[in-house]
TrEMBL record:
Hydrolase in keyword set: yes
GO cellular component: cytosol
Gene3D superfamilies assigned: Glycosidases (3.20.20.80)
InterPro entries, sorted: GH, GH_1_N_CS, Glyco_hydro_1, Glyco_hydro_1_beta-glucosidase
Chain coiled-coil ranges: none
Pfam families: Glyco_hydro_1 (PF00232)
Origin species: Pseudomyxococcus hansupus
Residues where substrate binds: Q18, H119, N163, Y299, W404, E411, W412
E.C. number: 3.2.1.21
Protein name: Beta-glucosidase
NCBIfam families the record matches: BGL (TIGR03356)
Any one GO BP annotation for this protein: cellulose catabolic process
SUPFAM superfamilies: (Trans)glycosidases
Length: 456
């Protein structure tokens, strides 16, 4: 039986900055990603988000594409600077109305909106006041969550507070690859805390404004597996899992920050002592607020090999040295998804799980027949849906799957060179062409199962 549960939520995902464009339209304020993209050297192809997929103007066409795909749900994010251009205070009605119209259009098409509040595009004004390392930003986020859930709460029941706190904290404030491009361990740890805190504070606010609210958070989880059976590689896995996964999961599920990682950070000089300076009384209880689901973004596993200890380099590799890799250089490895889902379910009991992103970058464009034959994405999609179904068979309450992404879009520091879409975007004409993977997805969704052939 290769069928999914009857109520399985098939969807596609995008985020505001990556698709909308129209960065100056209708009173939108500046975001940290506008500023970052305008800084020479930050985006590898020198591009920016000014036009992107022009979704702000073409959203009706994009909703029609989703209707054609047959998806039941659409996960999109709201651009905070469209709604509250200066981060706090005055609400921009024109920006708010855009999302209200989009929601109406989705509902008319029979597609359930799944809203992410924060997918990285913070109002620049808030960054000028210190950004996420400043605790006040958490309060500003809660006000914004209140505005959005009041406006859309009569029509939208599903809400995600934050997308990938690890990326926001680490890439934004520690290695500087993402906006605002800072490199500071202290800022990173404070950011992670204030993101989690603002999540905990926003959940009851959203619930109060929304009928039948279903509220959660999305984490990017990276299961660590050792390159060899050596003790050193096992230690590298512990550290990776600790800083990447447990630092977020443990506080959300009431366990506090993992003490082994706190000790690592003290030893490495990233923390002055094991008392975390940004944690106030009651914070950990706030963060551990019960939620309705956990969203997971899965792309690949991380194979850990200790680079410090020579013995480890000589230990025999237990993993394939030359796996299939996507254009991001990420290994294609679906079995780790099943293991991850199983582990989350048994270890944290988060309730229903949704895969809120899964996908791959391949540059495949139109061939002579005018079609886009992205057979590697077709294979990726199939193998990861197999892995998802396997988890369901093992008893994991996986309730939905959102392919990343509906269409090619602005891939952050890589600009438009990496294409994650099931729909091809010609950035000169803004023409959308469903790739073979989109045709496959349409068939899978219709069948609610995996026994589907792709017509040639
Ligand atoms: C997501 O982030 C974002 O939410 C989305 O906006 C973005 O477009 C999409 O993914 C594609 O990048 O250990 O081999 O998995 C992805 C975050 C964090 C995923 C780092 C890969 C490390 C490589 N990524 N992670 S691997």
């Amino acid at each position: 039986m290769r069928q999914f549960p009857n109520d399985f939520l098939w969807g596609v995902a995008t985020s505001a900055f990556q698709i909308e464009g129209a960065t100056h339209a209708d009173g939108r304020g500046e975001s940290i990603w506008d500023r970052f993209a305008a800084t020479p050297g930050k985006i590898s192809d020198g591009s920016d988000g000014k036009v992107a997929c022009d979704h702000y103007h073409r959203w009706r066409e994009d909703v029609a594409l989703m209707r054609w795909l047959g998806v039941k749900s659409y996960r999109f994010s709201v651009a905070w600077p469209r709604v509250i251009p200066t981060g706090r205070g005055a609400v921009n009605a024109a920006g708010l109305d855009f999302y209200s119209r989009l929601v109406d259009g989705l509902l008319e098409a029979g597609i359930e909106p799944f809203v992410t509040l924060y997918h990285w595009d913070m109002p620049q004004v808030l960054q000028d006041l210190g950004g996420w390392p400043n605790r006040d930003t958490a309060s500003a986020f809660v006000e914004y969550a209140d505005v959005m859930s009041r406006k859309l709460g009569d029509r939208v029941s599903r809400w995600i507070t934050h997308n990938e706190p690890w990326c926001i904290s680490f890439l934004g404030y520690c290695n500087g690859e993402h906006a605002p491009g800072h490199k500071n361990w202290g800022e990173m740890l404070a950011t992670a805390h204030h993101l989690l805190l603002s999540h905990g504070q926003a959940v009851p606010v959203i619930r109060a404004n929304v009928k039948n609210a279903s509220v959660g958070i999305t984490l990017n989880l990276s299961p660590a597996e050792p390159a060899s059976p050596s003790a050193e590689d096992a230690e590298a896995c512990r550290r990776h899992d600790g800083s990447f996964n447990r630092w977020y999961l443990d506080p959300l599920y009431g366990r506090g920050y993992p003490t082994d990682v706190v000790e690592d950070y003290v030893k490495d000089g990233h923390l002055a002592s094991s008392t975390l300076p940004f944690v106030r009384d009651g914070d950990m209880e706030t963060i551990a607020v019960p939620t309705d689901f956990l969203g997971i973004n899965y792309y690949s596993r991380a194979i850990m090999r200790s680079d410090r200890i020579p013995e480890s380099k000589n230990a025999p590799r237990t993993v394939h040295p030359e796996p299939e890799r996507t254009d991001m250089d990420w290994e294609v490895y679906a079995p780790a998804l099943t293991r991850l889902l199983q582990h989350l379910h048994t270890h944290y009991q988060p309730g229903p799980l949704y895969i809120t992103e899964n996908g791959c970058a391949y540059a495949t464009g139109p061939s002579e027949d005018g079609k886009v034959h992205d057979e590697k994405r077709v294979a990726y999609l199939r193998s990861h849906l197999e892995a998802s179904l396997e988890a369901i068979h093992q008893g994991v309450p996986l309730a939905g799957y959102f392919a990343w992404s509906l269409m090619d879009n602005f891939e952050w520091a890589f600009g438009y060179q990496k294409r994650f879409g099931m729909v091809y975007v010609d950035y000169d004409s803004q023409r959308r062409i469903p790739k073979d993977s989109a045709h496959l997805y349409k068939a899978l969704v219709e069948k609610n199962g995996l026994d589907v052939e792709l017509a040639a």
